[in-house]
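seq as requested:
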Amino acid sequence: MSSRRRELTDDSGSPGWLMTYADLMTLLLVFFVLLFSMSNLEKERFADAMRSFQTAFQRAVSGAPNSIVPLEHNAPTTDSTAITDTILQTPEERPQSDQDSDADQEARALELEWQQLTRDMQRAFELMQMQDAVEIGAPKDGKLSLRVKGAALFGSGSAEFNRAMLPMLDALLETLVVNPGYKLEIQGHTDDIPISTAQFPSNWELSAVRATTVLRYMVDAGINPKRLTATGYGSSIPLVPNISSENRAINRRIEFVLEKRAVEQ
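struct tokens:
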């Protein structure tokens, strides 16, 4: 038993396993110190790399002679805060040039829409063989006018429809249904020959009743009344001087004015 104890004890009287344990602890300590030093080194290297990249980028943007990235022209320096403020600007705060560009695009889109609408109606009237009775004007000031000869739609001195022209009104109805963003103004016009009957004391009443007759037809067909207006102008807005029967026939008309604008619900 005594000899066994001597084998497990070194010359200094300490147990033999204590030296092995001390060596293991020393190695572990060295290992963790090494890991710690390597982690600090990586952080320092990363920080150095970022500083170098930032310096090179700033030189490239400023166009400095010692720039790492050669530039043919000096690039303007822009504050990142200014860029952020520009992105976050509301339409009211944006430069006038940008707003004008948006307005031009909207105007162009509306012009293309008018052109398509005009072509569609022209084809519809040609299929009905009514192109001679209906004249489609060019869009102007956000409006599109259609002129229908008064004799084609109404009899002389009368506010009753010519039944043969109802398909033309139905084509206008279809246009309003397909384009809910449009309003329609119906205008009645006459020549300067006075009229005096029990129903129509003057051309004012005749033109107004003709316009409202068309309006009622469209309302009865399901069009929202808020999208429609009817006005009688009598002989106050002639297209040509009332100096001949031909000119008077031109002035007797119903005009339909389409306008794209918000409709009240």
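Strands lie at 134-136, 143-149, 182-189, 228-232, 253-260.
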